[in-house]
Design goal:
heterodimer, A: globular, B: alpha/beta, Rossmann fold, seven-stranded mixed sheet
Chain lengths: ~325, ~400
């Protein structure tokens, strides 16, 4: 159990430096925390996306652990195959049992959208793996296009803030709840800045003898349009404005792992990034109100899950 | 190919037992005996018998294979890729649209040099939906970098299923391999065949020793790095090189299989071609019907013959050209349309083979048997009638003709 930031700096790194992620990108921060909490040995499968591209340009690799990328939608199935191979080889006596962890990384594109079936199937089959969704609310590697994780009103290159349509018309999927509905032993939502919360969750996930899933908010300086130095601030703001609650679902019991004493209005979130700049114009007030309603609705729903859990405990 | 007792090689190392079962079950038995580490299959007609039979072997503890009941064919190939990269001997099976759904990953599997074996039960592609046999599915996979073996019947499907493992895993090859059998005709047709003893099959395929497995955690390996334009071409050239080498490997494995089983296999199977003037060139199960058509013609004094191509990829150009050397006119039979192409896929491959090897017979192309339509001996006979007329001066146009099509 990693206790202090200092201890973290002394852990071996599963992901080395020298990759080409943007300055200010949260993905490598999250990945390094995850790998430290999981420990070694570990095998990682990675979906196509920023993380994969920035860390594996032949003939280089930033991965100090066994790592496989096969396609965009199938990190969950790919790691299922690695895990199945491990089970088979141990059963046949061709390799000794080892406490190898199997981890898949995918962006929100890979996870919410193109890869949802593959993830769902792997969860239903009960493979022993941890799926980490690196959610930066868009298909960032291909140029900031909208995803199922993008909220209403967001400017993206496929939902531009134009004269007629002010950004993405639809709200977003609640993927974490969809995954919780698979009734796997451990599901959680985490964020880049809350390192202790994230690492605790990863350790719980790693202890599961079966599938687990953590959805981690990963601010994207290029796609969200904010200064790269502010990534951790932005991550914290997402939680404080209730855009991204931190919670876990452990064996079906829903629990908030952080509750702000001073929650902020959604306008604070919208003011902090230029992808929402158009929403601050008076003619888009209705969109801002709709966003606040949706955030409130999701928060109320989450509170209900948590109090149901507390009531039936 | 089912050899008559008199055609079998005298000595062989394996024993066997005669069975009367369908081709799909034969392949499931081959899989049982090969005993892969991981099998990931999604059911689709007419492959389902393979998936279901193998599942029974798992449920009965007859194999220790990890059977992954995936939720789609794309997931099946994804699991295979992860498993093979991890260091496990891995297999799958599919048909028609299932293969089409895997198409993106066929390239990933071969580009990543993973020796996965796929048992393909050939089926027509939609639309319109058709669950019966033709070769449109496998033709869509021709250029994906997988060596492809075409089985004529259940016995050969069983035999190829065993050989495919040795081809795929050969250090000069390291490519995933497709072994086909014709959907319904062979998968569901009961025939007399021989299943070899477990020990001989096991010893033939040997232990799998994989190259840089992910599960060798002491030596971390990165699979699936991306290339910029500075490396991609060379990686593909290496892949092409492996495919070229596969030809010799397939031949060698076929000979070795012959010593073990009494049934040797080559790249092509000529039938009464030595002095033939008129020949058909065919893939798969129609060869069975054609053999009797050839015999019929021969009994009437016509110098007819047949060339069955066993290996579609890598295409055995020299063997094909050599086999057709003395033939005057040949009918190449394609069991799939190649829409917009000059002619069918097999016709194209045979044409090139002749062109680069000093020429050969004039060729015409017949599309036949689409969507499971059976082609009768008398219909194949019309192809021979045509090419005999062409030899006497009739036009070789149109190059693409049809057998058994209801026209007009």
């Amino acid at each position: 159990m990693v206790k202090t930031l200092r201890e973290m700096t002394e852990q071996p790194e599963g992901l080395s430096s020298g990759h080409s992620l943007c300055a200010g990108c949260a993905e490598s921060i999250i990945v390094r925390q995850v790998l430290q909490a999981v420990g070694q040995p570990v095998v990682v499968a990675c979906a196509t996306g920023c993380l994969e591209i920035a860390t594996s340009r032949f003939p280089t690799t930033a991965w100090n652990v066994p790592w496989i990328h096969s396609a965009f939608e199938n990190a969950a199935s790919t790691i299922s195959g690695v895990e199945a191979a491990y089970r088979a080889l141990v059963r046949k006596g061709r390799m000794p049992e080892k406490n190898i962890k199997f981890v898949a990384f995918g962006g929100d594109g890979a996870t919410y959208d193109i890869g949802l079936q593959w993830l769902s199937g792997a969860l239903e089959r009960g493979h022993r793996f941890i799926y980490i969704c690196l959610n930066n609310e868009g298909y960032m590697n291909t140029g900031i296009q909208r995803s199922g994780a993008t909220i209403q009103g967001t400017w993206t290159t496929t939902t531009p803030a134009g004269k007629v349509v002010p950004g993405k018309p639809e709200w977003r999927k609640d993927l974490t709840s969809i995954i919780a509905a698979h009734h796997i032993p451990y599901v959680a939502q985490a964020a880049a800045h809350a390192w202790k919360d994230l690492e605790t969750k990863v350790e719980k996930a790693a202890a599961v003898d079966g599938p687990s899933f953590i959805n981690v908010l990963s601010p994207c300086t290029r796609g969200w349009r904010y200064d790269p130095s502010k990534t951790m601030e932005i991550s914290k703001l997402a939680v404080e404005t209730r855009l991204w609650p931190l919670f876990e679902v452990e064996n079906g019991v829903w629990r908030l792992t952080y509750k702000s004493t001073t929650p902020k209005p959604v306008t604070d979130w919208l003011k902090s990034q230029d992808r929402f700049a158009h929403l601050l114009r008076p003619e888009n007030e209705h969109v801002v109100q709709s966003i606040q309603r949706n955030v409130d609705r999701e928060w109320t729903w989450l509170q209900r899950q948590c109090s149901l859990a507390a009531a039936t405990a | 190919m089912t050899l008559k007792a008199s055609e079998r090689q005298g000595a062989r190392s394996a024993t066997g037992r005669a069975v009367a079962i369908n081709g799909a079950t034969l392949v499931a038995h081959a899989m049982r005996q090969v005993h892969p580490d991981v099998v990931a299959c999604y059911p689709i007609t007419p492959q389902t018998i393979i998936t279901e039979t193998f599942s029974e072997f798992v449920a009965n503890g007859q194999v220790q294979t990890e059977f992954v009941a995936v939720e789609s064919e794309h997931a099946a190939m994804s699991v295979c890729i992860g498993s093979a990269a991890a260091g496990a001997r891995t297999q799958t099976a599919t048909s028609g649209p299932g293969l089409a759904l895997m198409w993106e990953l066929l390239w990933v599997a071969s580009g990543s040099r993973l020796p996965i074996v796929m048992h393909l039960c050939t089926r027509a592609l939609s639309a319109p939906l058709n669950i019966l046999c033709d070769h449109s599915d496998v033709m869509g996979a021709r250029d994906t970098g997988w060596p492809i073996l075409f089985s004529e019947d259940g016995q050969e499907a069983y035999d190829n299923a065993i050989q495919a493992v040795r081809v795929a895993e050969h250090p000069d090859v390291l490519l995933p391999v497709i072994s086909t059998q014709d959907g319904f005709t062979i998968t569901h047709g009961i025939e007399r065949a021989e299943i070899l003893d477990d020990a001989s099959v096991r010893s033939f395929v040997g232990e799998y020793s994989s190259h840089r497995p992910l599960l060798d955690v002491e030596h971390p390996t990165t699979y699936g790095a991306w290339d910029y334009h500075d490396y991609y071409f060379e990686h593909k050239r290496q892949q092409a090189d492996a495919m070229e080498k596969a030809l010799g490997v397939i031949e060698a494995v076929g000979k070795e299989f012959g010593k073990m089983s009494g049934r040797p296999y080559g790249l092509v199977q000529p039938y009464r071609l030595d002095d033939a003037e008129f020949a058909v060139v065919v893939l798969g199960s129609a060869a069975g019907t054609l053999r009797s058509v050839v015999d019929d013609l021969r009994s009437r004094g016509v110098k007819a013959g047949m060339l069955r191509v066993r290996v579609l990829r890598p295409f055995p150009m020299k063997a094909v050209a050599e086999a057709l050397k003395g033939v005057k006119v040949a009918a190449v039979l394609d069991r799939a349309f190649a829409f917009g192409a000059p002619a069918g896929a097999l016709f194209g491959d045979v044409s090139v083979s002749l062109a680069v090897n000093g020429g050969g017979p004039r060729l015409v192309n017949y599309v036949y048997g689409l969507g499971g339509r059976d082609t009768l001996p008398e219909q194949f006979m019309t192809a021979f009638d045509d090419i005999r007329r062409i030899a006497k001066g009739a036009s070789v146009q149109p190059v693409v003709r049809y057998l058994g099509l209801h026209e007009g």
